[in-house]
Amino acid sequence: MAYGYCPICGAKGRTRERRPNGNDKCENGHTYPSRGALRRQPDKYEVKLRERDRTIAKLTESLKEAKTAIENLSTSLRVLHKELHGYKNRND
User: Given 41, 43, 66, 79, which residue has the most CB atoms within 10 angstroms?
Assistant: First the structure.
């Protein structure tokens, strides 16, 4: 029985969970939502583009997390600076 093709690597789908919003698994072991299965096998160029897009999405998410961490650190440093500056003035 055909379950479409894997959106990650383009391999044939092998198994499908029989439940609402279930997952498929391809010949190469990737698990993905059944609704995301491709109707036709993508060519190698399409697979590379999808891989590139996933990499860009992961890097974008990592950059957002790093930006948040830097903003939090900056805020903490400002608070610490104010506390130290205030402590120094009280001891003068």
Answer: 41
Query: In angstroms, what CA-CA distances link 48 with 9, 26, 51, 57?
Result: 9, 17, 5, 14
Residues 37 and 5 placed together within one structural domain of the fold: yes
Can you tell me the distance from the alpha carbon of 16 to that of 10, in angstroms, rounded to the nearest whole number? Answer: 16
- pLDDT at site 90: 60
Q: Is residue 27 part of a domain?
A: yes
Residue 49 covered by a domain: no
CA distance linking residue 7 with residue 9, whole number of Å = 6
Tell me what pLDDT residue 51 has: 87
User: Are 36 and 70 in the same domain?
Assistant: no
The whole-angstrom separation of Cα 73 and Cα 20 is 43
**Domain containing residue 67:** 57-92
pLDDT of residue 89: 60
Q: List phi, psi (to 5°) of 27.
A: -55, -30
Q: How far apart are CA 16 and CA 26, in angstroms?
A: 9
